[in-house]
Write a structure and sequence with these properties.
Blueprint lengths: L2 H8 L6 H10 L2 E5 L4 E3 L7 E7 L2 E6 L5 E7 L9 H4 L5 E4 L3 E7 H10 L1 H27 L2 H18 L3 E2 L2 E3 L4 H8 L3 H13 L3 E4 L2 E4 L2 H8 L14
Antiparallel strand pairs: 1-7, 2-6, 3-7, 4-5, 4-6, 8-9, 9-11, 10-11
Length: 239
């Protein structure tokens, strides 16, 4: 049930049998949620955290003018709201982008587990730091990268993150986002997203068809994005 989450943790550190059992026992309930469902509302009090088992979700901020900005993408194996364990609320909404399955981890259970196995607390603190690094990289994209480099960078990141949990190959992955959702992640208009996708295809770098991302030239895509995966901390066995 939480295979993707364990793969994500083990890419970065060792997880003992006792720690694995504690993580599994912390999930007290699973729920299936439909695409488009608002799962967490900005500012609401939280008493559990959600572990994404299947599907894609996103943190979003809706503005008064009707526009929406994505603040992060959650993929299988990610906690959607681990910050809520300490903050008790979030500063953004969380929505399901696809049909999804989530595991609920009550905060009192999470506290018991991390008190009993303090190394797990350290590991999850590290995971929230990595989440923050991913958000910082998005800020750089929105502020400084061109539209085509911004999109290339997102494709590279998603490919790396999915590959860690067994959801992608070197040549591509499922990519269920609509052009509207992609525009909300990248801070572009839908028209600009469409033109940028066409340009990436014309250059022989990627194709996005039928919700499938195919990477034709990974080296070229990473060069265009100036992509450096070090902010994902994929090989840091320091914990």
């Amino acid at each position: 049930m939480i295979t993707a989450h364990l793969r994500k943790l083990r890419r970065r550190t060792h997880i003992s049998a006792d720690e694995e059992q504690a993580i599994r026992s912390a999930v007290t309930e699973t729920r299936n949620v439909p695409a488009g469902r608002l799962l967490i509302r900005c500012g609401e009090t939280l008493n559990h955290s959600m572990l994404l088992i299947e599907g894609w979700m996103a943190g979003v901020k809706d503005l008064q003018g009707g526009s929406r900005q994505g603040t992060e993408l959650q993929l299988p194996g990610d906690f959607a709201d681990l910050q809520g364990f300490t903050l008790k609320s979030l500063d953004r909404d969380v929505v399901a982008l696809t049909n999804a399955k989530v595991g609920l981890v009550p905060h009192d259970r999470l506290r018991e587990v991390t008190d009993r196995l303090p190394r797990l607390g350290w590991i999850y603190w590290s995971m929230t730091n990595i989440d923050a690094a991913i958000t910082r990289e998005l800020v750089i994209s929105l502020a400084q990268r061109s539209a085509i480099s911004r999109m290339a960078h997102l494709f590279c990141e998603i490919s790396y993150r999915l590959e860690v949990v067994g959801g992608a190959s070197k040549n591509g992955c499922d990519f269920p986002l609509t052009q509207r959702e992609l525009s909300e992640c990248l801070g572009l208009t839908v028209v600009h997203v469409n033109r940028t996708l066409q340009e990436l295809r014309r250059r022989g770098l990627v194709e996005l068809e039928n919700r499938q991302l195919t990477i034709r030239d990974r080296a070229g895509l990473e060069a265009l994005a100036e992509f450096d995966p070090s902010y994902l901390y994929l090989d840091q066995h320091r914990l």
